[in-house]
């Protein structure tokens, strides 16, 4: 950020698929040890990821002491607390309330900043995407609300969808059918394709592909997100792994792949030349045999690719597309793909 690199000193990286698993394991251990040694314990402790619903039967005076006790158990864990107001409290997307008979009621919770703004009926999206808005809201109402709050929530959904341009006769507020049809034998996997939605032509193409047994899914076209630029500093492409190209003064090039950065790989090539290990670098061997000069400064990364197998495939493709020095052709490509790689009209060996 602004030319500076920051190191995360605790926890896993943001976005890592391992993060929620490790966090859950840590919290289970934290809860077991902390609740076991507490002087007073809640009668109910329910947690979803990092949100916890607690029933405290010991009065409000001792609740603050319990919060301070939890925050002293680990230096990296800090709890905040929200208490019920006027007999209600939100937990995730559920609003929990006390009923006069002592039971708990539950309804859909919306933040004060919620505007009931959903995908408008006149927006240029496939009809199935618009109908999913109706279906998702109704399904959540049936899953979250009790019988006393369900009718009120369904009425709210109907009013909100009408404000977003949906016609009353097209709004469905009945309980979605979640039954899965029973089939004998292994499930059949149908071919599918995702296409951009472009209006009536998409519907026509969908009917044709459906007759051929192909499922069609539609994606939206240009979005505002694609026009917005990130504020992060751009990383130099040469610092990434990928497929690279080294030119020679004779017009030929060397194509290679590396899991390290390009400067490191170039140093290895040049080191082979200084030590006389010409068989370890095709470009160095070509330069030595033909007394050619390698343009090391013009070497470039032509395809940043992180994983080894895709890199090997791309390397083989680029070798076929370029006029290369004598080198290993790399990953075997079926000859059926060669016409697609022939971009300049010259034959591909």
* Strands, total number: 10
- Gross morphology is extended
Name the CATH class of the domain at 237-341: Alpha Beta
What is the strand arrangement across the widest sheet? Answer: 3-4-5
Please tell me the overall pLDDT: 87
Structural classification: alpha+beta
State the helix count.
Answer: 10
Approximately how much helix is present in the residues? 25-40%
Describe this structure in words.
- This protein is α+β, with helices and mostly antiparallel strands and 349 residues long.
- Among the domains are: 19-83, no CATH class; 127-170, no CATH class; 192-221, no CATH class; 237-341, GIY-YIG endonuclease, CATH 3.40.1440.10.
- The protein contains ten helices and ten strands.
- It has helices at residues 19-37, 60-71, 127-144, 147-163, 200-211, 224-227, 262-275, 282-290, 308-321, 338-341, and strands spanning 44-48, 51-55, 88-91, 94-98, 104-108, 192-196, 215-219, 242-247, 253-258, 300-304.
- The strands form four sheets. Strands 3-4-5 form a three-stranded antiparallel β-sheet. The protein has a three-stranded antiparallel β-sheet with strand order 9-8-10.
- Strand 1 and strand 2 (51-55) form a beta hairpin.
- The longest helix is centred in the N-terminal third of the chain and has 19 residues, at 19-37.
- The protein is extended, with a radius of gyration of 31 Å.
